[in-house]
Amino acid sequence: MRRVLSLLIGLLTASSCLSPAARADDTLSFPVLVPLTGFLSLEGTSQRNGAVLALKQTPAGVAIASEVVDTGTSPEAAVTALERVAGSGTVGAVAASMLGTQMLAMLPLAQELKLPLVTVSGTASITEQGNPWVFRFFPGDAVTKAAHARYVVEELGKRQPAVIYQTTAYGQSGKAHLDAAFKALGVTPVFEEGVDPAAKDLLPVLTKALAANPDVLVLHLHSGPTALLLRQAASSGVTLPIVAGSAMHQPSTAALLEPAELKGVCAETAASPISGDTPEVKAFTDAYHAAFGKEPDAFALGQYDGMTMVLEAVKAGARTPDAIRKALSSETFKGLAMTYKSDGKGNMAHSAVIVCYDGASRAPKLVKRYDAPALAAK
Amino acid sequence: MKRCAAVAERSSPRVPLIAGALALLVYALAFASPYGLRVLTVAGVYALATFGFQIVFGLGGALSLAQGAFCGVGAYVTGILGSRYGLGFEATFPLSMLVPLLLALPVGLAVLRLESHYFALATLGIAQVLHLLAVNLPDLTGGSNGLAGVPAVVLFGWVVPRGLPMAGLVWGLVALGGLIGWRLARGRLGRSLTMLRDDPLAAGTLGLDVGRLRLTAFGISALFAGAAGALAVHTQRVVSPEVLEFPVMVSILTIAIVGGRGRMAGAVLGAVLLLHLPEWFRFLERGYLVVYGVALLATVVLAPDGLTGLLDRIAVCLFGRRQRTPVETREPPLPLDLPDGMTVEGLRKSFGGVLAVDDVSLDLRPGTITGLIGPNGSGKSTVINLLSGLERPDAGRVQLGGREVTGARADRLARAGLARSFQAAALPAGAGVLEAVAAARLAFDPDAKTAEAHAGWALGRLGIGELAAHSCDGLPAALRRRVELARALVRRPVVLLLDEPAAGLTDGEKADLAALLRDLAGEGMAILLVEHDMGFLLPLAGRVLCLDRGRVIYDGPAGGVRHDPVVAAAYLGRVASA
Questions:
Q1: Domains and CATH numbers, chain A
Q2: Which of A214-223, A359-368, B88-97, B314-323 has the lowest mean pLDDT?
Q3: Contacting residues of A for B283, CB less than 8 Å apart
Q4: Of A4, A87, A173, the CB nearest to B34
Q5: ipTM for this model
């Protein structure tokens, strides 16, 4: 036992001599912690690309570093990733996962480490934890689902929606906000059912929904299930209008379908970069395509806007996480998708748009924009 | 290296394991960053969950795919009680262990009777149900979003900070759990489970209650899983349905296999390696999964017995084989006095349309040797299986020591004083001779040490005491028969059923066996001897029964069987001329 203790003390002494001295480094680090594998890999890759593209705009006189870490889909992996990047250099802010459960897990640690998390997660509860270190550059469900419901009721004039949603955090949160928005509009869905993201056949739920005699199908599904349901609806000859969730606007979702299968389908989203409604957005889309060989979506644009706002704060002199947090909390930023301003809880985005497909191309047209003041459901 | 591998099986890698534990401690105390400590903490949580899995799967051989789900249940208990009701660690931790246990017991009663893959599928189904409940009971569980705001560990008013204190707490519990698991594995329970895993049929005939053992292992696995789940939720401060998903289970299974099946040290080694491996390759973005997979595959190929097996071999090469301490030998207590032996009346058994045993009656009196002969397929082994509880009779009556035991389970018959051998000596692969014989006393003795002492006596009685430290693998047929006989003898049975014990023996070995059987009968044992070798059987047996197509065609003195025309016809296919 004495020999073991001697060995232990010796090793400890040696280790203290070997420990690297604290490095003096002015480089500001902006790690990107996103799900690159698992069921959110498509969206996570968009998020990654948006952040990486934004971080190429290095402000003059400031050295910037970035590391991309895959968080998978487990909260545990996200927290480990945050702990990992926090220990490497001076972190200015973190581009953080769009997966709600990962964000909820990272929030306490971010508060403890005093690191701003910049995300495009739509999960409502991440900005309801009283945590001042989270900033969401994507409209939350309260915004997008209000726009979703209002378009269905006010623009399409439908009052008997059938709602099909996902049994994930994304799906349950969206469904709850859709319920509230429809209720505020005096509409009660004739059908509501959750489906597992792993379901390989959505015809049964579609058949049940149609049996309830709806006048519109309202979807709130992830990318793959959205494409599957639309294909099965098209092959079944469904002629009802379909208004889908934000996953539909993603070019990667549209790529899974023939243009004809998309005819008459609309979707809510924060933005649709490939619709190219302004020259700045078109320039972003071209740069994104040149860098990554694919089309951007709203998640890429939202994360791009978020990290660009962070860099604007750095340009303006913010050199610490706290200074960046203060800038994000108080400044207004005109991004490519919309104008961002914190509501005091970290919700930066307050606009949503509706896009529709004409059946001839996979690029949707922007048909309606809903901005902040008008979003509270009537 | 090959030579080392050949003798490595009974060694113990204590030196490398102690060195490894020391290195881990030094790393945690002096080198690890907060991130390193976090990975280490998570590794500790997985090690704790895997301890339980090592008991139910590694030792017991039951592939429970509910271990991850039990871990999730523990996590939810801590999450709900901690975040909603503000209960402290002192309350939530034991409750997080208790709830999975209470869930495992009724579930186990229902599914543990299923065999191999059916059991695995049933436990997977349990995990799926729990996941669905977590998603669809949002008022209780927070639904898909889960519950945020789970407090840190608060121990008697002290908030345990993350980093070194939390890692220390987790690894302290890992050390405690590992010690408990290690003691269980080396004790009566662990050895009984190993016996059950290696040969469930033989385990029952040795008196081991298969159902109770499996349920105990399942319950213990749930306790460990619940503890791990509680610690997991404190380290990530949120509980969501991901903790109930299959990847958690896959991680636990992989840790057990990579670390070394059934070994607590393997759980720790596997967890530390598997949790660190992906972190070492994170810089590859999503490419790390390919490298991780290749590294894992290489580990499994290079160390098929797990990392602990590899360490065993290295330790033997470096330090030589550890000498077994000679065991104390002790004579087992004599059996209860059952003057009536075993009485069988009208035994009948059919398999589908085949009547394997039809109206067989026999009387095995203490101090006698009864022979049971018949052509191949006449029903001799079925009779032994019926008498020893491996098959249930369709009709008939069996009494042991005057007590009704018709249709009783094998383990109950074994505990009531019945022992049997098998046609092919059923010795567990990889086990030592002493352990194999001691397994027959596990249901009777208070601890493994006493069982080994009794096993030593039985080996000595059969003249093979020097084999105690040998492995059962590679023993010649005659010695395997002796070891199996020692397993039967060590229980001091009242009735001994032997299925072709002389098969494959030389004349000298047969003579030794005959002398031993005479001695045993002389001590009051009732012996039923199934044998084809008439030269061996007839001088031994006082009475012989001959079966043909399940029916008794001869029942009388041994001397008369050779001249019985019906017996001759059964064997030769015609009536012998007088």
A1: 28-139+277-347 (3.40.50.2300), 141-269+353-374 (3.40.50.2300)
A2: B314-323
A3: 67
A4: A87
A5: 0.75
